Amino acid sequence: MVNENGVLLKSFGDDIYDSLAEAATEVMEEVRDYDNFSKRVHDHFYKGLREIGSWQNIAEIAFSNQRNRIMNLQQPL
After folding, report:
1. pTM of the predicted model, to two decimals?
2. CB environment 55-77: b (16+ within 10 A), e (fewer)
3. Predicted confidence (pLDDT) per residue in 32-60, tens digit
């Protein structure tokens, strides 16, 4: 669609991501507070998410950036 119809690709701004995060946090806190089991699941999920986030910065994101660089796949948004 970009090449054929002149569609412009754009990234969402920080304000959109901030609003999404705020809404998601509110929902997740409600789920967490439902009962003890939900709290345990929530706490384990976020512990894993923090650990995976660190790994993704090292492996996944770095790999994607380098792959895009060497294959000349980077396109400005």
Report:
1. 0.60
2. eeeeeeeeeeeeeeeeeeeeeee
3. 999 999 999 999 999 999 889 888 888 88
